[in-house]
Amino acid sequence: MKNLGIKISLFLNYFVFAILLNSVGAVILQVQRNYEVTKSAASILEGFKDLPIAFASFFLASFLPKFGYKKSMLTGLLLVSVFCFLMPFADDFWYFKMLFFVIGVSFALIKVTTYATIGLVTENEKEHSSFMSSLEGFFMVGVLLGNVLFSLFIDDLNPKSTMWLNVYWVLGGLSVLAFLLMLTAKLDERKAVAENRSLKEDFSGMLKMIVLPLVLVFIASVFLFVLIEQSFQTWTPTFYEDILKVPASMSIQAGAVLAGAFAIGRFAAGFLLKKIYWFYLVVGCLIGCALMVLLSLPLSKGIEVTETVTWLNAPLVVYLFPLMGIFLAPIYPTINSVVLSALPKHMHSSMSGLIVVFSALGGTTGSIITGNVFEHFDGQTAFYMSLIPMGLMLVALWYFNRLQSSNDTQTTH
After folding, report:
1. Which residues of 262-296 are buried (b: 16+ CB within 10 A; e: fewer)?
2. What is the band of 168 on the pLDDT scale with cuts at 50, 70, 90?
3. Which contiguous run of DSSP H or E holds residue 372?
4. What torsion do the CA atoms of 105, 111, 116, 118 make, to the nearest 10 degrees?
5. What kind and span of H or E run contains 286?
6. Which parts of 11-85 are beta strand (E)?
7. How far apart are CA 114 and CA 379, in angstroms?
8. Do residues 252 and 29 touch, judged by C-beta distance below 8 A?
9. Fold of the CATH domain 4-305+312-408
10. Whole-number pLDDT of residue 413
11. Which of 143, 185, 330, 359 is the most exposed, having the fewest neighbouring CB atoms within 10 Å of its CB?
12. For the whole model, what pTM was predicted?
């Protein structure tokens, strides 16, 4: 298969960062137990992860084609490898702030270059969309296995135990493996650099893209989606322990079930997009997710624990709640692929930078809002509020589809 080595490397990179990025939900739960950090204070970890992603993506996206996609990915993998090996010695909350800061900067390097590289290793729009859905699906497999991995290191009987920090030895090893595989992979980057364009021209070109109506509406859609997604992914473990009254290890496993639902949804989207117009699929998924929220949250009220809860005797809502991931999953890679496929390859890095910036801002906003509502009201109210951005996103997607269809018509004439 053409470009097999670099494709496998991209999958492994995404797998490693899926675990690291989405460990924030498990870490938020654990720092509350280990260091007596409040929910609102713990929610700041999302900002330490996402804001560096946003800033690094914004300022580096136009520079990365000239620096080199492969060099950028190697730099990101090296940084997280070093910090993972430091974390087993962490004894204070600030260590986790620094960890997620480094993860954020590194992921900015990885994601921008990965999105831009997809255009170099695929031949057409359908292959681009299919590969991106598969890659994002594999990302969710990493989230699933990462939650399971963290749960294996948690001592339910001793909330103050720091045994769970040993998981970072495993994550450090995975990061080194990804580094070595990327080091040996071959990637032809010649098409990524626009001829006769300076770095200043590339950066100004990215800024000019922001004001295009199509890009503005697309950015709004991305921001709203990640706001919804991260509010669920980050706070599901806390929701399960506080509201559904299940043990901490099982709460983190619930995050794995949610990630598994995301993986199923994204792999399925890779097949469905060959038969269904993207707009109909995405709108159907968004409506399905809203219905799942309205169906599952009423079942979470008034739960009483009379015995030790396991996956064999849990209430219905414990199984029902994560299924919304199936509906949420196809939205993000689909709209990203639609906008990237419409651009020339030398613009993919800049557009990827904008995607990552507003994804990061949406993730931070969603997590902080959910954390504060969770603390001052309750978990049900926090997740009911996700219906507001879902409604706004329906409107944004409708405008995005109209502008994209209009753009396609002008291109063909």
Report:
1. bbbbbbbbbebbeeeebbebbbebbeebbebbeeb
2. very high
3. helix 348-376
4. 160
5. helix 278-296
6. none
7. 35
8. yes
9. Growth Hormone; Chain: A; (1.20.1250)
10. 45
11. 185
12. 0.72
Contact 350, 205 (CB under 8 A): yes
Q: What is the pLDDT of residue 251?
A: 83
Q: Contact, 175 vs 16, CB < 8 A?
A: yes
In degrees to the nearest 10, what's the CA dihedral of 51, 53, 59, 60?
170
Which three-class secondary structure state does DSSP give residue 311?
coil
In 3D space, the residue among 407, 18, 412, 10 whose CA is nearest the CA of residue 213 turns out to be 407
Whether 191 contacts 118, CB under 8 Å: no
Q: pLDDT of 196-205, one tens digit each?
A: 556 666 667 6
Compute the average pLDDT of residues 109-114: 88
Instruction: Output the CA angle 30-34-38, nearest 5 degrees.
Output: 75
Closest CA to 259 of 6, 26, 2, 1: 26
Structure tokens at 390: 């879902």
Instruction: State the burial class of residue 153 (Cβ atoms within 10 Å of its Cβ: 0-12, 13-18, 19+).
Output: buried
Q: How many CA atoms lie within 13 A of 151 on its CB side?
A: 19
